[in-house]
Design goal:
Keywords: Cell cycle, Cell division, Cell shape, Cell wall biogenesis/degradation, Cytoplasm, FAD, Flavoprotein, NADP, Oxidoreductase, Peptidoglycan synthesis. It catalyses: UDP-N-acetyl-alpha-D-muramate + NADP(+) = UDP-N-acetyl-3-O-(1-carboxyvinyl)-alpha-D-glucosamine + NADPH + H(+). Belongs to the MurB family. One of its GO terms (cellular component) is cytosol. The chain is α+β, with helices and mostly antiparallel strands. Helix content is 28%, strand content 25%. The chain is built from 7 helices and 18 strands. A 5-stranded antiparallel β-sheet has the order 6-7-13-11-12, with helices on one face. Helix 3 runs antiparallel to helix 5. The longest helix is centred in the last third of the chain and has 19 residues. The relative contact order is 0.14.
Length: 302
Amino acid sequence: MKEVVRDLELAGVQNVTLNEPLSRHTTWKVGGPADIFISPRNKAELERTMAVVRKHGLPWRVIGRGSNLLVRDGGIRGAVIKLGAGFDDLKVEGTRVIVGGGYSVIRLTSMVAKHGLTGLEFAGGIPGNVGGAVYMNAGAHGSEISRVLESAEVLLETGEWITLTNEQLEFQYRTSSLQTKYRGIVTEAVFQLQYGDRKEIASILARNKDRRRKTQPLQYPCAGSVFRNPPGDHAGRLIEASGLKGYRVGDAEVSTLHANFIINRGQATAKDVLTLIHHIIRTVEEKFGTTLEPEVQVVGEG
């Protein structure tokens, strides 16, 4: 790994850390270390970073704000990349919004609301960044990113820059072609919104925020919804009906407020969370014959 660090230094990539605990970068506050953690400050640095990664044949992955992600306790071998400050730009051109992949989704919803633009109110509580939201086709309150996204700029792992249209992203429920066809990093997204009434937009955002505060355990480290909703039903309803609210493994607990959330009561490990996830899947399957599928991505070594 010393040679990788040396090559990154020669390439002018500055924000590089060895054995970085990923518990510092996940919303669950669990996860072992990354062999090498890199936070490129801009597109040029990202390009040079990927060139070094390719040269050394390093496995790699990008993380956003660490939501929707469970890193096992053994950590991640290879490189973990997190977009730095240079990916945090926002430009509004009429109803068209161009935003960096590292931009906070929550901040984005607030900023476009100030411009009187409607279409992203559903995303006011999504804790990730724009790149992750595009990758996952994040959604809430009956809507999702695919409905307002025009295109996304992506740096492929080959070093090629491409722009994918909404159609090319092949959005489906919590998935996109970025998970199957185009392995790369979303550096910028373009949204097509509409003019709306500022007061009405602010009212919807406030209503959604109040609903989340009342129905989600936001005071604890968690990763949002753990399971995808099965067709025609809700994962939270099935888990609650299985009597699992409050069920606990170590410091990982099924939230008593929202059964599709697992909270970290302080000292939970990834193993605790995974054991709880498997227990939930088994219990719901035995009771209802439905196999729940995790929405969170589980990565790293056990």
